[in-house]
Amino acid sequence: MFDTLFQSDITMASTTRNSQEIMNTSAQIPNQERPASTVPGALVLPVVLALWVTAGWIVVSAIRNDVAARIPYAIGLIFVGGVCARGFFTLQPNEARVLILFGAYRGTARQSGFHWANPFLTRLRMSLRARNLTGEKLKVNDKRGNPIEIAAVVVWRVQDTAQASFDVDNYENYVRVQSESAVRHLANTYPYDHGEESEGTEITLRSGVEEVSAALQQELGARLTKAGVLIEEARLTHLAYAPEIASAMLRRQQAEAVIAARQKIVQGAVSMVEMALTQLAEKNVVTLDDERRAAMVSNLMVVLCGESDVHPVINAGTLYT
To answer: In the predicted model, is pLDDT for residue 298 greater than 90?
Structure first.
């Protein structure tokens, strides 16, 4: 008896678990757009007009012949024509209508023109044109923890109307929120600029514009596929250090520029001194020992690397006095 009850409990638990798995699987299946069945409006319009003309003729005939029993037929024809007239709708280029019948998705009409469909259908208008989303300036930390300000512009359009209508609550708000989240994640992935420890090969937000834009577009595409949205372009529109560290980072950049300039000056001065000593030795202009050669190198380096103007000193004695 207990074995039977135990097996029954196991069977019930297994059935419940399988039912929950089936429900979860069905809930995760995304909707797919499919074409709707519509009729050209030019074919149905004469029928509706004929119903209304017939109803008018019946009313006029009933009044002339004093036959009131025909008026209900005219009212019925007018009502039927009015119901059928609710099925007319027009579509402009790059515009769609999502058709819903009593809560069930019946397809999407994309072809521009004059159409007629079941008058009891609910028709949701949806634009398929490209749209711009200009993000606000966000204050985030880059890969090295430096606070920066960043903003981006995203060009997007609806690709699957069924997913945009039924898989997310509000696809426009979904695009805005996910775009902000993607920009924040992008800023945390890359450093703002090359640091002292980097060798110049690292991709940064400031130097790797194309790589960063491609990474942002790829991440947005992965995030917004669920909403049936296609990302056509994504680029940064604003990038700067946060105000609290902007002055310090500016001084750092100036110092790095001065150091780089000094390195170029020193390299040029060394090559010029080497060239001068080599030519003096090859042409036997003067013979210098090590001490005088070192003094000459020192004087040339001071002249070539100094920031102030050179003031020559005339030696009236010999080379060794």
So the answer is: no
